[in-house]
Amino acid sequence: MSQDKVENPKSIDLSLNSLVQQIEKQNSNLSVVVARQFCYKLAQTLVEVMISEPRKFNVLEEFILRASIEFTPLPTLKELSSVLGLDIVFLQSTAENLARFKSLKILPTGELKITPQGQESYKQGNVSLPPQVKQIYAIADPFAENLTFQFEALPSGLVDLPDLGELVAIENHLPTLNSLALTDIQPLIQAAGLGLHVPEEGKIVTNFQAIGKPQVCWKTISIFVLLDVIENKHIIQIRQDKQVLEKASNWLTELEAQQKFDLKHLGRILPENTPVSPSKPKAKRQRSTTKKSQK
């Protein structure tokens, strides 16, 4: 990319001055000529997930289940109370919990009978707790082409930054949340590190449901144009904070090479952050074959 592609003087947002200085200090051959912040639309949806989770049996639970397997005839709470020397009240409460977990059946005669589910749980050494319901937020990012999950909602207010969509058309190729299967959602929730879907610990998201309509939120990114004084060329970088988004940077570089995006538009944006409409039609982003996050 030749040096005359970007107009002088430099076009740098005040909020990015510190990062610009850091880049130039660490790379003596680079000069930042453009550093501008933009925003683009995200879709945020409240999602309700159901979670199944096991826990280890305590000593008393394990004894009652073992007795219901090994004793002939079937034991009663009174008999177990006598064997253990415990007040029957403690055994009654524990047996009722096991019955609620579908691991034990208390017969009308007072006998304790283990259920098929209880036998399986006894072999594994844990009991399945009643399902939990949690609410999280699904964030659909059409620019990064990914779907992520988090506990906290993003702010929905307007951002006082130029809209990236005024410079390039960001087409949304992400599937709708309701069109996804549970098996599509589970690894995404696991990757988010929320502790809701941890198969190795037996913690499983068993169902999900979108609540209400998606809400529009805004995300901030920065576009940098760096002049390599040795190679005498410009380098385009798209950043989120200090992270360079390689895929997005390459995409914008390709559009510039195809003359579908003019870097001069970056330098001509007014100081008040008013977007300037490009003289050429908006460059359309091509469908990606991956939905992975930018790295």
From TrEMBL:
This is Uncharacterized protein. Residues 281-295 have a biased composition (Basic residues). Residues 270-295 are annotated as: Disordered.
